[in-house]
Amino acid sequence: MVSFTLLLTALAAAVTASPLQAVQERGIQPGQGTHDGFFYSFWTDGRGSVDYNNGPRGSYRVTWNNVNNWVGGKGWKPGPPRKVAYNGTWNNYNVNSYLALYGWTTNPLVEYYIVEAYGTYNPSSGTSRLGTIEDDGGVYDIYKTRRVNQPSILGTSTFDQYWSVRRTKRVGGTIDTQKHFDEWKRQGNLQLGTWDYMIMASEGYQSSGSANIEVRAA
Ligand SMILES: *[C@@H]1O[C@H](CO)[C@@H](O)[C@H](O)[C@H]1NC(C)=O
Questions:
Q1: What is the tens place of the pLDDT at every residue in 86-143?
Q2: Is the CB of residue 106 less than 8 Å from the CB of residue 87?
Q3: Site to substitute for ligand 1 among 86, 87, 213, most atoms within 8 A of C-beta
Q4: Model confidence over 5-44: pLDDT tens digits?
Q5: Atom of ligand 1 nearest to the CA of 212
Q6: What are the boundaries of each domain within the chain?
Q7: CB contact at 8 A, 103 and 112
Q8: CA–CA dist 102, 202 (Å, integer)
Q9: What spacing in Å lies between the alpha carbon of 87 and ligand 1's midpoint?
Q10: Which of 7, 32, 73, 172 has the fewest Cβ atoms surrounding its Cβ within 10 A?
Q11: Where would I find the GH11 domain in this sequence (predicted)?
């Protein structure tokens, strides 16, 4: 027979467990993995809070509050050149945030961004333009920046960042990544290495914001 005391203990455990479960349901832990056929990466430097949730197919939903820096999204690993389509909601024009096709290569270690929309900070500020690219009816400017002793997929490292920044911001469309990679090399002598991951990322820097984005192969 189940004693009344045991029943009470079980009830008490259930009651105390529910707030914890509620917290966990607000978002997954930072990390990488696969979800519904897509690779995902969710990174934060740990300051503030990020409620990141993977959704169906290539979708994710995220809300961040008072972060220092976080970046995440869904895509592919490895992420060789492909045509990418995306859609969704991203309305962070008044805070420091990016919406970008984002990825890494190794040998050389490179962090790259094809920026579709950004908020208060233009990532090309203070750098000189290396060229331009036309893709899906828009013009992108090419830039390179250098990161010294910063977080990377290989730990703290010094590496280059390659950028395409769309002059007219948008949320939704297709991106021909091969075109960007080819023009980076041709116009800026920007070499990429071995494909690591490629995701349709949202990023927040010293900001609060939200996004709901879906990516797929075009
Ligand atoms: C993206 O578009 C598809 C097709 O119209 C729609 O079903 C889906 O809900 C959209 N995703 C987001 C995140 O808005």
A1: 999 999 999 999 999 999 999 999 999 999 999 999 999 989 999 999 999 999 999 9
A2: no
A3: 87
A4: 444 444 444 444 444 443 434 799 999 999 999 999 999 9
A5: 13
A6: 29-217
A7: yes
A8: 9
A9: 6
A10: 7
A11: 26-216
Contacts of range 27-33, beta carbons closer than 8 Å, 24 or more positions apart: 27/51, 27/52, 27/53, 27/62, 28/52, 28/53, 28/54, 30/72, 32/77, 32/197
Instruction: Output the six-digit token pair for 100.
Output: 């970008």
Q: Which CATH number fits domain 29-217: 2.60.120.180, 3.90.420.10, 3.40.50.10420, 3.40.50.2300?
A: 2.60.120.180
Handedness of CA 164, 144, 72, 75 (dihedral sign): positive
Residue 143's pLDDT is 98
Q: If you count them, how many residues does the chain have?
A: 218
